[in-house]
Amino acid sequence: MKLRAQATLATRPAKQVHSLADLTADWRARATGLLGEDATGWARTLTTNGDQSALLRADDVPLDTIADLGRAVVAVVGEKRSTWRRWNLHAEASRQLMGIRLATAEDREAITGMVTDAAEQASLRLTPPELASSPLLFRRPDGSSRFRHTGAILYSTEELLAAEDRLLDRSHAMTGPTIELATVEKITGKPDAEGRRLGPDQAEALTRIAVSGRVVDVLVGPAGAGNTTCRV
């Protein structure tokens, strides 16, 4: 890995530095070619003649809608991970609000923050609160302690914790089907159709799972360690 990284750096061409003005001019020229008309004029016409009545401000959105969006954010984030932090909720809130037209960037930031706050309220906080208050010298402008990283509070939901409890219960159950040790050793000792053989560690892992009798068993290993080959 170190040699590959070194080779990548050694053969990488030098970066060409362009100013923002040059980049903007290039983007404008490319957009003009795609649109078949002046890109600046096209954008100005679109923003000037658009339906301004459809633009919303942060205070136009009812609080119950904010709460519903917060719960939707938690539901989506909970499908991808078992624990999360504010940044995960904020990212999903931004995606949820992407299709809503807002009057200003400030309105978008405000409503995104409100939805993120609602998502935090709908989540179950796992990080314990501060045991002691910090002096004003060690507090941020928002009142949070400088001894705790910003956005470090960990969240989950009662449903996810209950699901984890069910998995743990299943992992202690020993009523699953098993395979005779001799049969497993016979299978793991043979090459597959392509002539490949399991390594000693792969054979041991497969044997442990096959004879364990656990209802829920897991095989964990780093990428490239042969986990998929072992299971197949």
List the total number of helices. 10
Principal-axis shape: extended
Helix content: 40-55%
Order of strands across the biggest sheet?
1-2
Q: Can you tell me the residue ranges where pLDDT is under 50 for at least 5 consecutive residues?
A: none
| Record field, number of beta strands | 2
Q: What structural class is derived from the secondary structure elements? A: mainly alpha
Radius of gyration: 28 Å
Distance between the termini: 27 Å
Query: Per DSSP, what share of the residues sits in E-state strands of 2 or more residues?
Result: under 5%
Question: What sequence of helices (H) and strands (E) makes up the elements?
Answer: HHHHHHEEHHHH
Main beta sheet strand tally, sense and closure = 2 strands, antiparallel
Organism: Gordonia otitidis (strain DSM 44809 / CCUG 52243 / JCM 12355 / NBRC 100426 / IFM 10032)
Protein name: TrwC relaxase domain-containing protein
